[in-house]
């Protein structure tokens, strides 16, 4: 222990180290395949210290899942509530931001799906995605466009599902896609970068009146 450093600061630093290690291991292995010993080894700490800060693997997993889901959905919130961008610009921004995010964190989509499906109500209550959409500037712009007959009579939640499917599914299917097609990592990333421009075009075509 470094002499002179406050205990509170050391506690906070150790907790952060454990959480970062847990995030990495849980994202890669999921809950069932992860041992607390794996997290302790990744953090470079002994198992007793990990158990001192976080009493159970279940509790640590719940924390990591919530933080991962919150960070993932935060991008949507930032884009959808932006007062200074148009409806079309929001679609473009969402595609660009999420593709960049998932290119750096490709394990997150499968992690979220497997983590949340066992207790969807718990996370839905903590992160009300429906309200995040229906109370947004994006939704207001959507209704204005529909009123002016500039877009088709589309449910905004259907639009969101299609948009997120265009963005997220390629990263979920990546291992199979690369194996079947022989696509290399750089080729796949080039395709994802192309989708930043293609996705807004596809979405606009779908909602055209």
TrEMBL record:
This chain belongs to which protein, by name?
A: TetR/AcrR family transcriptional regulator
Q: Does the keyword DNA-binding apply?
A: yes
* DNA-binding region per UniProt: 35-54
Show where the HTH tetR-type domain sits: 12-72
The alphabetical list of record keywords is:
DNA-binding
Superkingdom of origin organism = Bacteria
Coiled-coil positions: none
């Amino acid at each position: 222990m470094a002499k002179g450093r406050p205990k509170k600061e050391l506690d906070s630093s150790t907790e952060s180290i454990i959480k970062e290690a847990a995030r990495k291991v849980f994202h890669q292995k999921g809950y069932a395949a992860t041992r607390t010993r794996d997290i302790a080894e990744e953090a470079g700490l002994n198992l007793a210290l990990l158990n001192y800060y976080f009493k159970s693997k279940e509790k640590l997993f719940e924390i990591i899942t919530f933080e991962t889901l919150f960070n993932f959905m935060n991008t949507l919130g930032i884009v959808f509530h932006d007062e200074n961008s148009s409806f079309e610009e929001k679609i473009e921004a969402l595609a660009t931001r999420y593709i960049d995010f998932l290119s750096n964190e490709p394990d997150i989509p499968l992690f979220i799906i497997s983590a949340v499906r066992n207790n969807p109500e718990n996370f839905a209550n903590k992160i009300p995605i429906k309200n995040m959409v229906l109370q947004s500037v994006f939704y207001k712009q959507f209704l204005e466009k529909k009123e002016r007959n500039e877009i088709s009579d589309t449910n905004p939640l259907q639009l969101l599902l299609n948009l997120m499917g265009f963005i997220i599914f390629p990263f979920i299917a990546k291992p199979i896609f690369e194996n079947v097609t022989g696509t290399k990592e750089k080729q796949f990333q080039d395709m994802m970068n192309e989708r930043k421009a293609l996705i807004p075009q596809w979405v606009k075509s779908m909602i055209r009146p």
